[in-house]
Design goal:
With 402 residues, the protein is α/β, with parallel strands linked by helices. The protein has 14 helices and 19 strands. Strand 1, helix 1 and strand 2 form a beta-alpha-beta unit.
């Protein structure tokens, strides 16, 4: 999986820097090409001579080569690499990466990087547990970077043993797993819905919900990363919600009716669809042309039902297509999810409950149970990026059965 892959290895000032040698050896043994970029502090812990001997390449540390003044182009490195791995990554480097403080060659390379970035933190437990470090790691994760940590790989859930850098063989295994999935969905077209819908009451008011779009966007990125072409039909989400992958085509809509129309149009040319949007089941029966004025003490808004997008697609689904729904529940979770699985003719449903802390709307994490007609798999609380990978693993398994 790593044969011929070009890896930029960033090394920072941590006692764990000696382990970088083991990482390099294992990467090279697997056929990868490694270019080291080291921070000035990193050089206090390990010498560039050792690193260049192992990689058979000069180590890059300064913006200019000291010997002849040649310019080291961080932009070229960003284009050259298939992946960037920063191991060990100190609290200081993690903070600079999260905030774009480009005061050394490693950070400028990171900011120019076009390839996926893996970060293996290394620091003492108090520094690791500090809210600012945790916040910086969450920020980096929300930018699509992969954090490699000892244990389950989930930030701050169990701090015991965290902070220490993950062992080199596990770091290399994470990269191998990543590359093994790349391209596994090539040639597939996936429709994904994300975010809330807004149902207009009058020109200034609407009925909406708390969906941020984070779960749906994570699914879109994961499918695109695996080589699929994604149509992302997206309700009104905040301006900060942006897709990164060029294979994601975003269609913005506002209401459930508009989302329904877009999905109906797109679904026949898709291999699969994942309906992650929180769609309003009802919409005001009439939309007032002018802002509704306060008159009496109370007010009644009559609602009429919206079309059910999942149920519509379930009816027109061909045997070669895979349809995935979500169930957001507050009670009677499994029973309700099972009922939706059948009623909407889904291949599987992803249950998340608002009773689980850290799950559902707006959080960067989710806790899901994947329910198929004959199995049920619970997953622990994880970042939405990793939850998306679990869901897409299941999607691929279902698609392979068809
Ligand atoms: O966006 P985030 O802040 O990251 O939050 C993620 C999430 C909580 C919105 C997401 O994980 C989730 O649970 N999405 C589904 C929310 C929902 O509306 O669930 P539901 O149980 O009401 O609907 C069941 C299924 O039918 C869903 O796949 C839904 O998209 C679909 N549906 C519902 C109503 C409707 N009119 N049309 C639909 O297609």
């Amino acid at each position: 999986m790593l044969k011929g892959k070009k890896i930029v290895l960033g090394i920072t000032g941590s006692i764990a820097a000696y382990k970088s040698c083991l990482i390099i050896r294992q990467l090279i043994k697997r056929g990868a090409e490694v270019q080291v970029v080291i921070t000035p502090a990193g050089k206090e812990f390990i010498t560039p001579i050792t690193l260049s001997a192992l990689t058979s390449k000069p180590v890059i540390s300064e913006f200019f080569a000291q010997r002849d003044g040649t310019w080291h182009s961080h932009v070229d490195l960003g284009l050259w690499a298939d992946a960037m791995l920063i191991a060990p990554a100190t609290a200081s480097t993690i903070g600079k990466m999260a905030h774009g403080i480009a005061d050394n060659m490693l950070i400028t390379t990171y900011l120019s990087m076009k390839a996926p970035v893996f970060i293996a933190p290394a620091m003492d437990l108090d520094m690791y547990a500090h809210p600012s470090t945790q916040q910086n790691l969450r920020t980096l994760q929300s930018y699509g970077n992969h954090i490699i940590e000892p244990g389950t790989g989930f930030l701050a859930s169990h701090l015991e043993g965290k902070g220490r850098m993950e062992e080199p063989e596990h770091i290399v295994a994470s990269l191998e797993q990543f590359f093994s999935q790349q391209g596994s969905m090539k040639g597939n077209r996936v429709l994904i819905t994300a975010g809330p819908t807004y149902e207009k009451i009058d020109p200034v008011r609407f009925i909406g919900n708390y969906s941020s779009g984070k779960m749906g966007f994570a699914l879109a990125e994961e499918c695109a990363r695996r080589g699929a072409d994604v149509e992302l039909v997206c309700g009104p989400v905040s301006a900060s919600m942006q897709t990164r992958h060029p294979h994601i085509h975003r269609i913005d809509v506002e209401s459930a009716r508009q989302m329904h129309e877009a999905c109906q149009r797109l679904f026949p040319s898709m291999n699969s669809a994942i309906l992650c949007a929180a769609v309003a089941d009802f919409t005001p029966a009439t939309v007032a042309a002018q802002k509704i004025k306060r008159t009496g003490d109370d007010m009644v808004i009559r609602l009429k039902p919206n079309p059910d997008i999942a149920a519509t697609l379930g009816t027109i689904k061909r045997p070669d297509q895979t349809l995935v729904g979500f169930a957001l529940e507050t009670d009677n979770e499994e029973h309700n999810a099972q009922a939706k699985l059948q009623k909407k003719n889904l291949d599987f449903i992803v249950l998340n409950s608002l009773r689980d802390p850290g799950a559902g709307f707006r959080t960067d994490t989710n806790k899901i149970t994947i329910i198929t007609p004959d199995s049920q798999t619970q997953h622990p609380l994880k970042p939405k990026t990793e939850v998306a990978a679990d869901i897409i693993d299941q999607l691929e398994a279902e698609m392979n059965k068809k």
